[in-house]
Amino acid sequence: MYELENCAKNWETGYFNLEGTSLDVSGESEQTLKNKKYRKARTFLCPDGKERLFEKHAKERQFNWRIYFFPEVSKVGMRKVIIGYVGTHLPSVEYPT
Asked: From residue 32, how far is each of 8, 36, 55, 82 by CA, in Å?
C-alpha cells in the first residue's frame, strides 16, 4: 500500500489519480451508500473536526482488508489524502456480515 502514500506525496494538480498503479481501488455501490447503517460505517471524523463520507477504498485482497481514503483539496489549494479506516471488509448490501 506504499503506492497510495507515494501517489499522495506526488499529487500536485488536478484530481487524485491512481490510474497506472497496481492498487485495486473502487468506490462503494450506490445501494450501500443509500443504506443509512452502511453509509454511517463509512463516515469518519477527520482531524479538522468534520465528518466525511469515505467511499473510495483500496483493497488488500490477501487479507480482505480495505483502506478507506478521502482526497481533499483545501481552499488554498493544498492537497492531502486522509485515511479514514484500515481494516477488514466493512459490511455492505452485498456482504452484510
From this structure: 27, 8, 10, 21
Its sign, for the CA torsion 43, 39, 91, 27, is: negative
Residue 88 · residue 64 · CB < 8 Å: yes
pTM, two decimal places: 0.90
CA–CA distance, 57 with 11 (Å, rounded to integer): 17
The model's confidence at residue 96, banded by pLDDT at 50, 70 and 90, is: confident
Compute the C-alpha angle 16/22/24, nearest 5°: 75
